[in-house]
Amino acid sequence: MVSRFASEAGFSKKSLYVIQERxxxxxxxxxxxxxxxxxxxxxxxxxxxxxxDSIVGLEDYGNGKSSCLLATSALVVMxxxxxxxxxxxxxxxxxxxxxxxxxxxxxxxxxxxxxxxLGLNVVSVVSDQGSNFLKLFASLGVSPYHPYFEMRGKQYFxxxxxxxxxxxxxxxxxxxxxxxxxxxxxxxxxxxxxxxDQKLPIRVSPKITDKHINPNGFSKMKVKLAAQVFxxxxxAGLSTYVALHAMPGSALGTAQFVSKIDTIFDCCNSLxxxxxxxxxxxxxxxxxxxxxxxxxxxxxxxxxxxxxxTGEDRTSYLKCLNGWIITLKAISLLWRKLYSEGIASFLxxxxxxxxxxxxxxxxxxxxxxxxDNPTPIQFQRAYKKLFHSNLLQVNTGNCEDDIDESLVKxxxxxxxxxxxxxxxxxxxxxxxxxxxxxxxxxxxxxxxxITYVSGYLLRKTFLKHTxxxxxxTLVDDDSYDDRRxxxxxxxxxxxxxxxxxxxxxxxxxQYTIQLEDTFIKxxxxxxxxxxxxxxxxxxxxxxxxxxxxxSFNTKYLLMLFIRLRVYYCLKFANRELRTPxxxxxxxxxxxxx
Length: 593
Ligand SMILES: [Zn+2]
Fold this sequence. Notes:
The chain is an alpha+beta fold. It folds into 3 domains: 5-128, no CATH class; 164-325, no CATH class; 438-578, no CATH class. Helix content is 45%, strand content 12%. The strands form 4 sheets. Strands 7-6-1-8-10-9 form a 6-stranded mixed sheet, sandwiched between helices. A 3-stranded antiparallel sheet has the order 12-11-13. Zinc ion (ZN) binds at residues 465, 467, 469-470, 549, 551-552.
């Protein structure tokens, strides 16, 4: 059985406890790590989890902080070792659209506080250049002159995921010409080179394909395609063609640009000391990286993006240029710090990207049957599973194969629940009701739904106890109004299990209407997604049912009502969500009976 504690949104005490236990078994020095944050899209869907008594699918920041907004994405916080290979999801949050700056700030602050108190030494924070992350870091004072922020007196270096930056610079080169050191780089040159090269029997750059030159939606996401364009072979090929007068001399600018980006990315993507390219080897005290990074910073600072049609200077619109400068400065400061403080004698910069988080998202999608956008409950279940198990290998993702081992595997210890934190969830203990039955559903849609539900609740509750005293106040066999007509008409239905319909008295009917009104009011102003049934029960128990029999099981009736109403509310809300073209899908709409 998979334990429940990783399923809650937010920083759950139980998840943190498990992480703490695992950290204890890490080797010395392995606690130096990065905090990773990213969001994935979800498909809006609502689900009531009976065992947790919670609604999954609304905004959820954990610790009871929720809203009536539908969750459309999940923010995940992960930690990743820098000097040792390990990774661990820490928490997730269900958010509408994307997580706002204020919430992100709170989450970052809490995450750092928790992780440091568990004994981790977080030195950097990694994200992509999503506008909410950019705003967050700007609000924390991060800039090209200041590539870090401080919290509680500690510095955290800000790194924008280098693979994302590489794709950004490629996408911008497809739109604009880049001017640097009096030269011009343009995508046309790369296109022309490819056109000529692919016609040759033996090609200079055989890896380059149409997908590299005209990347569409999906191939635009693949880092590898961008990395293969900004490669030594394309730079060398362009230079060769110029030397042979097969291309204009101006293409040398493009060749140099390609070569510079190649070297800069290598510095951010170093891995093996056996790599033939120097910059792809780990940083060490004598390595050329710092020199190349300094050159890279100068390069991005002087780069100009020009609209080739209008001649307009677009440089200030390109977020990725500042992104590169901040990242390169952060990496060099981080390396200096680790080296000078004797924490590390070498640095593998590939450990600084957010690949493990992207691969984690890939695994989540895989768990839901390769669902591009899982629903919140599918996300939650997959997250819970992956929190504990070794992460699945994803080969189709847009990241280099994930070389990390999950912290779980590295530590190889059993999940232990903290003894002092026993689960306190009180689920609604109920017999399985038959309201999912098709016939019942049809009747729910009928005009007199409230009368029908009222009668249904009575019939079910009378199975627990009934007597003449109960019936005398709650049942009305004699009155002949419209409602009664409808019920007697319905009683002619052939289904014998519904033959015993009960006509509620006016007392019972007024009571049911009060239950319904209170229910609707509560759900429309839902403040938290946990303890949904428990809170409703408390609320509905305060409504007085005026009847003389002490043995009548009101509590059972209320629990049945709650289950039935929650079930139908979510069912109808989900139906709305699936209806194409419906507007205003931002909120959870609660419909009356
Ligand atoms: Zn009774």
